[in-house]
Specification:
It is a single chain. The protein has about 170 residues and is mainly alpha-helical. The chain has helices at about 5-25, 30-55, 70-75, 80-85, 85-135, 140-150. It is built from six helices and no strands. The termini are far apart.
Length: about 170
């Protein structure tokens, strides 16, 4: 049973109980008491009908004019409009979540790229310093000095220019 049915039953019970009590005390005015009871019952039904008409679960239809006041007041967000556009709201929420997730992933990728660029720069500097050290140690003068200090090689600087040998074909 709903609330409205409960209210109707309470009013009907009240209306039917009052004439019964009055009938026992005044037998002469039975007709007038019954008429009063019927009149009260009719008035209660009209009151219930008016309450039913006023108590609607649906929102009233908004006016077609959308003004700043209706927007700021939130009057244009009726339950009917929200129900019709629920999938749009769900789609917007999904897009917002996807946007945040993609932005976070992009930031993580940028941080990783910066870290790798720093590592690459360090590797380039190490390669450059190793290359310069190798170039310095491979010079002819340094090689000959190292051989002289060790005194275990017969190599020395040539006094004569190299000979070119021609082979006939």
């Amino acid at each position: 049973m709903s609330k409205k049915d409960d209210i109707e039953l309470e009013i009907e019970q009240t209306v039917t109980e009052e004439p019964a009590v009055q009938e026992q005390t005044q037998p002469e005015g039975e007709v007038s008491l019954k008429e009063e009871a019927a009149e009260m019952k009719e008035q209660a039904k009209k009151t219930i009908q008016m309450i039913k008409e006023k108590a609607q679960e649906e929102d009233p239809r908004p006016t077609s004019a959308i003004t700043l006041r209706t927007i700021l007041g939130g009057d244009f967000l009726t339950a009917d409009m929200v129900r019709r556009q629920i999938w749009l709201f769900v789609l917007l929420v999904v897009f917002c979540i996807a946007y945040v997730a993609i932005r976070y992933q992009c930031q993580q990728d940028l941080i990783a790229i910066d870290k790798l660029e720093k590592e690459l720069l360090d590797a380039k500097y190490k390669a450059l310093s190793s290359s310069s050290t190798l170039t310095e140690k491979c010079r002819e003068s340094h090689v000959l000095d190292a051989l002289k200090q060790n005194k275990d090689s017969l190599l020395h600087i040539a006094d004569q220019p190299p000979y070119i040998i021609y082979v006939p074909e």
